[in-house]
Amino acid sequence: MSVHHLEEKFQQTVDAEIKIEAKDWMPEAYRKTNLRQISQHAHSEVVGMLPEGNWITRAPSLKRKAILIAKVQDEAGHGLYLYSAAETLGMSRDQMIADLHSGKAKYSSIFNYPTLTWADMGAIGWLVDGAAILNQVMLCRTSYGPYARAMVRICKEESFHQRQGFEALLVLSKGTPEQRAMCQDAINRWWWPSLMMFGPKDAESTNSDQSMKWKIKRKTNDELRQNFVDMIAQQIKLLGMTLPDPDLKWNEARGHYDFGEINWDEFWNVVKGNGPCNKQRLQARINAHEEGAWVREAAVAYAQKQANKKKQVA
Amino acid sequence: MQCSIRKFYYGDIPEEQGGGAAPSESMNQHGWPLWEVFIRSKQGLDHKHAGSLHAADARMAIENARDVYTRRQEGISIWVVESKNIHASDPGDADSLFEPAADKIYRHPTFYDLPDEVKHM
After folding, report:
1. Are B54 and B32 a contacting pair, CB within 8 Å?
2. How far apart are CA A238 and CA A1, in angstroms?
3. Cβ(A265)–Cβ(A275) below 8 Å
4. Among A45, A51, A52, residue whose Cα is nearest residue A69
5. Complex ipTM > 0.85
6. pTM as predicted
7. Maximum Cα–Cα distance for chain A, whole Å?
């Protein structure tokens, strides 16, 4: 069978909404795109633990602390589901981690912003996880089976992340003037970076078209971003807070909210490594990996010792 | 035809057909092999494939599986098996492998026309 014929058959399978599995033939570019996207997604979950980990020891109550720990544990779990899915495409876990540490592989830029106050924990849950969920719900129907299954699992767990965030902000919004100010400040700082999470505008996104054709993605960056704005613009009313965008207003004709222009220079700057925390985040990952090396080695030595013992008995 | 895709063994990929690196290399430099995790969600149901993870040995695989796959009481029993020990059918042969069942509609109860008087059977 010629490659052309295989590609045609592959596209027919995708068009018929039949999932692609690890062992099926797939175009090399499909494999690479999925590998890049899934590994980047995995890295984002793992690096995403850092900004929130920052507040575990300073959570305002035992209840909030337990919730935050559970959320950060979920993110570790989500990273592991996704690394496993990415491994089915032929890259080893070690290689993926090496690529993250060398800067070759990217993670979501949102995690390069600092978490300055407790209210940031609420804003991250509500806005950052809220934005991530829209993307992830779409990805539950992505064409690559192992990725879709990982996303279904993740989506089931993610809803608590957003709800606890909104609830934390709701409590602050009903608090003292200082707490209300802290709440508004966190929303002001996280709003624009959250909008940037959906990626470049459709007109400038290079990967979108082919990804839509292969049903890796099912909605464009701009569609998802609009969904997000429409959702948040309503929810913020319940907090009695405002979004930091003077151009935000309901457009009756479109049936959507209009919103202001994103600062794309800032977006590309952070992607290229010049965000407020890029170096710190990556260094934290590298340190964790290097300082944990002896644990991994000891586990291997122990496993070997036990296996040898068993052999001797037999 | 499938050798153009470089793959490591994972679940349903037989080792010798996985392509890519040999198992010893794909075991990662830290030497933690890949395990497949099966979980029984409640008494009376089958163990079902939940996913995979890396662990140094079986005990660690079970403990990690508990943390990764049952944080919300999704299981009451866990099986783990090293991925390399799973043998699988080849999707490329699926048509011929499963063909024998395709033309045996008489195996289904709806194949038989019975008089209405029989009622439930």
Report:
1. yes
2. 59
3. no
4. A52
5. yes
6. 0.88
7. 79
Identify the burial level of A194 via C-beta atoms within 10 angstroms of its C-beta, where 0-12 means exposed, 13-18 middle and 19 or more buried: buried
Instruction: Express each pLDDT in A88-117 by its tens digit.
Output: 999 999 999 999 999 999 999 999 999 999
CA geometry: angle A32, A214, A150, nearest 5 deg: 70
Q: Give the strand pairing for B34-40 and B77-82.
A: antiparallel
CA distance to partner chain B, nearest, from residue A178 (Å): 36
Check B71 against A303: CB less than 8 A apart.
no
A232 in Cβ contact with A127 (< 8 Å): yes
DSSP string for residues in A264-289: HHHHHHIIIIISTTHHHHHHHHHHHH
Which amino acid, A106?
K
Per DSSP, which regions of chain B are E strands? Answer: 34-40, 47-54, 77-82
Residue linked to tokens 């608590």: A160
Q: Report the distance separating Cα B36 and Cα B29, nearest Å.
A: 20
Q: Which residues of B touch A302 (CB under 8 A)?
A: 56-57
Strand partners of residue B37: B51, B80
**Band of pLDDT at residue B30, cut at 50, 70 and 90:** low
Report the alpha-carbon distance of residue A43 to residue A54 in Å, rounded. Answer: 18
Asked whether A152 and A140 are in contact (CB, 8 A), the reply is yes
Q: Is there a contact between B7 and A150 if contact means CB atoms under 8 Å apart?
A: no
